[in-house]
Amino acid sequence: MVLISVFQVVYPFKTSTLVMNESFHIFQVMFDEIEKQFATEFDYRKEAENLCKIHDNVIKGGFGREITVPRPIWEYTSKVGRKMHFMYSKP
């Protein structure tokens, strides 16, 4: 999973920089923030909600014929995965 591989790369660097010197405090703050962001950004339920908002705004803005935004399938949407309607397109 992508989330795990990112933490495997970030976490060893984070811990090694903290041990080296207190001047690396900025790295601690930076990596703590990155960890918090990863915890919230990889929630596909939130992404599905945003996708619905974008879809609704495209329709309200009068661009529904020019722009097609896929809708999530809520029965198959969870924190770790999302399924959307398949969309055909022209090259």
Could you explain how this protein is built, in words?
This protein folds into two domains: 2-41, no CATH class; 43-91, no CATH class. The chain has three helices and no strands. The protein has helices at residues 2-20, 25-41, 44-60. Helix 1 packs antiparallel against helix 2.
Largest sheet descriptor: none
Helix content: 55-70%
What is the number of E strands?
0
Shape: elongated
Counting structural domains, the number is 2
* Low-pLDDT stretches: 1-9
The fraction of residues in strands falls at under 5%
Element pattern in H and E: HHH
Number of helical stretches of at least 4 residues: 3
Mean pLDDT: 75
Distance, first to last CA: 31 Å
Oligomer: single chain
Q: Please identify the structural class as seen in this structure.
A: mainly alpha
The gyration radius over C-alpha positions equals: 19 Å
